[in-house]
């Protein structure tokens, strides 16, 4: 899957300006609209799934309890799912562009683990700190962890496609073991597992609004997406095109780290999402960037919505956190992607 | 496959390292003495109360640590030899995660009370059989496929581990909080709760495998030269590798079922052994790896308990150091 993806970029490089204009035809627009509609349908289904009976007839009849439920719990939850799904998928895409590797995302390079360590530190040191302060610390840790990964990566002259994620996963494992050690000492293991596993069940009105920051970051990512592709080609190439390589990399780092930190603090880690969605989008629509970002957003939101609905219905009336559904599904898809590479190489 | 990640040739590459100049006989003797001192200190330091009882408890723990040192050291060394790779270990390939999954599934389906009252030998037997079956399937599948990419195999192993961990946490979320608390104790390698009966069974199993491994030591030297060379030199490569993989599976299964997962321990010990020994013959590597493991475990536990007052966190520290070492080895291998 990797070799064709790379050759595809090479082939479209000289004609990319033409290709962009040619491919974004009316058919593409219809498809995007249909995709958005699909997400909307899933979102509506998601709103009506739950223990308390919130149904269309009840709402139409003006049942105050049902409206209250919708307003305080269901709507915020669905919004949180859509926002987090979109943002994490796009963050994965940005990261893959920056390091030019298809097997990389915030949860395979230690960003998520670093953010978790940050929350743990602030929970132990300043238990009474407001959510925003916790998020700030988590973001700083996420930034540091990601920068560490990039520093390690720059020491790898031989950029084997598979060694990059291995180094990232191991780095994440080392950071994770530090977190586990202190969580164990402070008896916070079960709290820790809440952060490590994405879960939307605690999302209520007043507890998800920070995710709108993430939506804004996603839009910035969309606008700057082309630059990340250029930066992925290397510092010299970028400078030759008259751009500031360091500034672009910093921007990418900040976007990815902030998205990871905010999502981890509000709902917990959503594993594999940023890895799988960009890969599927690439398989379906190629590597044309302006096309890829909206599709990544749509698939990201749709994938998390589906996983959340599965999590809420699989053991009704109890709930399984979305992060678990996703880590199982995600690991299976990731394995499939890897083994596809294997048969192609063989 | 990058040349640098395969097993090193049996000659010292860096002459500047003074440690390499030590003769294997000297290394072995120093380690043997250090092990004996560690055991003696562990048995006697801060001994009070009913001395006979305390000695018996400590003896069980020392026995467990020795068995784990043998099982983990031998399995990692053999695994690295037959795969001609210094990064692969059975536990990086997803074994510890499978152990967690099996433990979790047992607690989930039977309930913690049933599990606690069940005969330990029965539980132990089930775990060992499941793990051997899994590893036979997985390794056969991975090593007989036509891929040839070591990194791919490594990544597949890590992802399979993630998958098992995902399944485990899914089940953990669905179980009772009281069950979770009991399970939590099983997550970390612990040398405090070993059943004497299990210790005996494990000692017999590990002893038999250790004897087989010792008798195969010359074959290992040939296998370390790589598949083609080994076949040219008259080793039945396929048969020997299959035998070794089954032996590894049993060793890892026994040690994890005995005390829980210790992911990077083997990697750590075998890497140090290679650094210490000038002679890469397995007749030296096998005992040195085992003794290094024993010193690390017993000495580490002693220091943690007596100096820092910790109980069971040794595995977390090993995980941290081992993870750093793993990244270092990856970087070093790729930089050359």
Report on this model:
The complex is a heterodimer of chains A (346) and B (336). Chain A has helices spanning 2-13, 16-23, 26-47, 56-60, 64-99, 111-125, 131-154, 163-185, 189-196, 211-232, 235-240, 245-266, 273-285, 289-313, 322-345. With 346 residues, chain A is mostly helical. Chain A starts with a helix and ends with a helix. By secondary structure, chain B is mainly alpha-helical. Chain B folds into 2 domains: 23-88 and 264-336, no CATH class; 90-187 and 194-209 and 227-262, Orthogonal Bundle (ABC transporter involved in vitamin B12 uptake, BtuC), CATH 1.10.3470. In chain B, 76% of the residues lie in helices and 0% in strands. The two termini of chain B are 14 Å apart. Chain A binds chain B through residues 103, 152, 155-158, 160, 162-163, 165-167, 169-171, 173-174, 177-178, 180-181, 184-185, 189-190, 193, 197, 271, 315, 318, 320-321, 324-325, 327-328, 330-332, 334-335, 338-339, 341-342, 345-346, and chain B through 2, 145-149, 151-152, 154-156, 158-160, 162-163, 165-167, 169-170, 172-174, 180, 184, 188, 313, 316-317, 319-320, 323-324, 326-327, 330-331, 334-335.
Named CATH architecture of the largest domain in chain B: Orthogonal Bundle
Strand count, sense and barrel status of the largest sheet of chain A are:
none
Write down the domain tally of chain A. Answer: 1
- Helix content percent band of chain A: over 70%
Structural class of chain B: mainly alpha
- Structural domain count of chain B: 2
Work out the helix count of chain A: 15
The number of distinct β-strands of chain A equals 0
Average of pLDDT of chain A: 82
Helical content class of chain B: over 70%
Beta-strand residue percentage of chain B: under 5%
């Amino acid at each position: 899957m990797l070799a064709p993806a790379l050759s595809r970029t090479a082939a479209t490089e000289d004609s990319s300006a033409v290709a962009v204009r040619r491919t974004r035809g009316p058919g593409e627009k219809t498809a995007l609209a249909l995709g958005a509609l699909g997400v909307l349908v899933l979102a509506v289904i998601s709103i009506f799934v739950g223990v308390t009976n919130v149904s269309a007839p009840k709402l139409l009849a003006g049942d105050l309890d049902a409206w209250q439920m919708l307003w305080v719990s269901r709507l915020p939850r669905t919004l949180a799912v859509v926002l987090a799904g979109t943002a994490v998928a796009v963050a994965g895409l940005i990261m893959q562009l920056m390091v030019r590797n298809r097997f990389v995302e915030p949860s395979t390079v230690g960003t998520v683990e670093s953010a978790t360590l940050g929350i743990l530190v602030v929970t132990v040191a300043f238990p009474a700190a407001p959510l925003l302060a916790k998020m700030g610390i988590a973001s700083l840790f996420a930034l540091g962890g990601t920068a560490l990964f990039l520093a390690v990566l720059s020491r790898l002259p031989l950029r084997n496609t598979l060694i990059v994620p291995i180094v990232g996963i191991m780095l994440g494992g080392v950071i994770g073991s530090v977190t586990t050690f202190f969580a164990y000492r402070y008896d916070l293991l079960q709290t820790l597992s809440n952060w490590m596993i994405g879960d939307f069940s605690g999302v209520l009105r007043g507890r998800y609004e920070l995710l709108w920051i993430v939506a804004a970051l996603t839009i910035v990512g969309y606008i700057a997406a082309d630059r990340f592709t250029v930066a992925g080609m290397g510092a010299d190439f970028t400078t030759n095109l008259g751009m500031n390589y360091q500034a672009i990399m910093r921007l990418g780092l900040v976007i990815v780290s902030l998205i990871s930190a905010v999502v981890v603090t509000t709902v917990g880690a959503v594993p594999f999402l940023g890895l799988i969605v960009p890969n599927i989008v690439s398989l379906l629509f190629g590597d044309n960037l302006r096309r890829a970002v909206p599709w990544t957003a749509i698939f990201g939101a749709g994938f998390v919505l589906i996983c959340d609905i599965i999590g809420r219905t699989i053991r009704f009336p109890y709930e399984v956190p979305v992060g678990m559904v996703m880590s199982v599904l995600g690991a299976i898809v990731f394995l499939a992607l890897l083994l596809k590479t294997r048969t192609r190489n063989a | 496959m990058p040349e640098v990640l395969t097993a090193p040739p049996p000659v010292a590459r860096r002459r500047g390292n003074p440690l390499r100049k030590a003769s294997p006989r000297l290394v072995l003797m120093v380690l043997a003495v250090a092990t004996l001192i560690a055991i003696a200190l562990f048995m006697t330091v801060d001994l009070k109360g009913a001395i006979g009882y305390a000695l018996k408890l400590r003896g069980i723990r020392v026995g467990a640590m020795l068995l784990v040192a043998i099982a983990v050291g031998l399995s990692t060394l053999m695994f690295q030899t037959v795969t001609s790779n210094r990064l692969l270990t059975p536990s990086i390939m997803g074994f510890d995660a499978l152990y967690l999954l099996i433990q979790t599934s047992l607690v989930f389906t039977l309930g913690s009370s049933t599990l606690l009252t069940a005969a330990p030998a029965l539980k132990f037997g089930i775990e060992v059989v499941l793990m051997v079956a899994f590893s036979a399937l997985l390794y056969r599948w991975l090593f007989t496929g036509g891929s040839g990419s070591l990194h791919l195999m490594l990544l597949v192993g890590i992802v399979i581990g993630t998958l098992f961990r995902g399944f485990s946490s899914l089940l953990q979320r669905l179980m009772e909080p009281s069950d979770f608390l009991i399970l939590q104790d099983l997550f970390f390698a612990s040398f405090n709760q070993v059943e004497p009966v299990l210790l005996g069974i494990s000692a017999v199993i590990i002893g038999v495998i250790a004897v087989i491994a010792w008798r195969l030591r010359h074959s290992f030297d040939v296998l370390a030269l790589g598949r083609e060379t080994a076949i040219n030199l008259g080793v039945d490569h396929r048969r020997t590798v299959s035998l070794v993989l089954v032996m590894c599976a049993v060793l890892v299964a026994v040690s994890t079922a005995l005390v829980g997962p210790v992911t990077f321990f083997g990697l750590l010990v075998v890497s140090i052994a290679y650094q210490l020994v000038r002679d890469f013959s397995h007749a030296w590597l096998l005992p040195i790896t085992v003794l290094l493991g024993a010193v690390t475990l017993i000495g580490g536990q002693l220091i943690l308990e007596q100096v820092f007052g910790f109980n069971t966190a040794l595995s977390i520290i090993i995980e941290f150091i081992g993870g750093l070492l793993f990244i270092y080895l990856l970087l070093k291998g790729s930089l050359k």
